[in-house]
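Good morning,

Attaching, inline, the backbone tokens for the sequence recovery test we're adding to the shared suite. The designed sequence is right after.
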């Protein structure tokens, strides 16, 4: 209970701080307005530009994976918020010149790049970089950009948009003519680019101090593979079951090729960790070919998708496909702890042959009296006596406890699966605050 209250308080604090920093340009106007005489629409346009720029600068801190910021919400929620707020900032920044152009056509002269003053040139390049950043992010799959190319270009566009946008603001030198106002924006720039230095330089250096080696690669059903890692020269990491880490394989952590995967091993065991990965893309299809002894680096643990942060009578774990990975970590960790609180696992798959950890789950189901496993098979084999089809409201009503509020519900799987299961739980009057969801789309 104390841990939950602590996360709630910390979460409110970060939201309030983010809102304060975002609106700081407008607060500056209220505290000490700039010289008058420019008219409402010019001031209105400037307000849009400054707020949008402040939003963009704070995105560097949101994506730096600071545990203190991500812990109350989960890093998947933070990254989703980052995507949405960037689009809001994009709209505000784009509105800034558009309002000026409609208000006074003389501002259109700034579009003459070669004749425009340097501050206008910086604004043009910054805006183009921001447009490219949004387009390549929103339509990355349609543009067929692989992850490494996208991530490199994303960083270049972001630094260009924010850096030149800030230079433009200082170049205009209207609101920032007073030293204390310039100091505020300098501090925001420090937060932005300090976060970038941390995540691109300091964090990889820290990861290099704690390397891992691949011990073995274990095939799983459903075209998945479990990567077992051993720490080299350090004690390893302890994580809460359900959390994940970013993995870098066979190269320096300064390289951009890192991917997030859930732990599938006992969180209390530090001498080895396991990550279970389904082969669905260029990188994941290479996992089965990884040789023992390959070097690896982990950035983690991350995530708030863990029962360790909450009090509960029992757990309902609902997953499809490889979404069972964090659930399996929860099960093996609770088994080793001797935790006897009841756990219901409801696990959906296309076929019986594709059930990852099938034998391990059968073993745990026999060994743990507190565990019950319900398999839901879309196309079941002949003489199948279990549940078939899809996880829906009617199926859940048969398996979740009648005492809805004393249990915690953890959901992990594909986006459509999560949306349907969450809707069904709401219809069954499961309180939203007891439902915890892990999304796959972190990148």
């Amino acid at each position: 209970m104390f841990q939950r209250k602590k996360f709630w308080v910390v979460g409110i604090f970060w939201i309030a701080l983010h809102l304060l920093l975002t609106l700081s340009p407008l607060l500056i106007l209220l505290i000490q307005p700039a010289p008058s005489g420019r008219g409402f629409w010019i001031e209105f346009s400037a307000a849009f530009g400054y707020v949008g720029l402040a939003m963009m600068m704070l995105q560097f801190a949101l994506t730096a994976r600071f545990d203190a910021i991500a812990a109350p919400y989960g890093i998947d929620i933070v990254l989703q918020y980052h995507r949405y707020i960037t689009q809001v900032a994009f709209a505000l920044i784009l509105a800034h010149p558009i309002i000026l152009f409609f208000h006074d056509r003389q501002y259109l002269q700034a579009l003459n790049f070669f004749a425009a003053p340097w501050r206008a040139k910086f604004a043009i390049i910054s805006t183009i970089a921001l447009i490219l950043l949004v387009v390549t992010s929103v339509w990355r799959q349609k543009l067929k950009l692989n992850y490494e190319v996208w991530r490199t270009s994303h960083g270049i566009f972001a630094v260009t948009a924010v850096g030149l946008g800030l230079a433009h603001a200082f170049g205009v030198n209207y609101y920032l003519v007073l030293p204390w106002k310039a100091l505020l924006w300098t501090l925001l720039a420090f937060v932005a680019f300090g976060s970038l230095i941390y995540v691109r330089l300091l964090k990889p250096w820290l990861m290099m101090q704690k390397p891992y080696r691949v011990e073995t690669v274990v095939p799983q059903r459903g075209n998945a593979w479990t990567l077992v890692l051993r720490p080299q020269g350090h004690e390893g990491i302890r994580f809460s079951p359900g959390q994940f880490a970013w993995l870098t394989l066979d190269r320096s952590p300064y390289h951009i090729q890192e991917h997030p995967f859930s732990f599938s091993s006992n969180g209390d065991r530090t001498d080895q960790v396991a990550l279970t990965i389904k082969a669905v893309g260029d990188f994941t299809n290479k996992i089965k070919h990884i040789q023992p002894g390959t070097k690896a680096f982990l950035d983690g643990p991350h995530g708030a998708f863990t029962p360790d942060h909450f009090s509960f009578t029992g757990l309902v774990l609902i997953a499809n496909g490889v979404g069972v990975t964090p659930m399996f970590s929860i099960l093996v960790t609770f088994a080793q702890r001797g935790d006897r609180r009841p756990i219901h696992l409801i696990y959906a798959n296309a076929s019986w042959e594709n059930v990852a950890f099938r034998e391990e789950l059968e073993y745990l189901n026999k060994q743990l009296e507190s565990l019950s496993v319900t398999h839901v098979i879309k196309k079941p084999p002949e003489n199948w006596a279990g549940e078939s089809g899809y996880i829906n409201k009617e199926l859940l009503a048969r398996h979740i406890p009648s005492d809805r509020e004393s249990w915690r519900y953890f959901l992990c799987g594909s986006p459509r699966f999560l949306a349907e299961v969450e809707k069904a739980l709401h219809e069954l009057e499961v309180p939203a605050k007891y439902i915890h969801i892990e999304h796959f789309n972190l990148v």
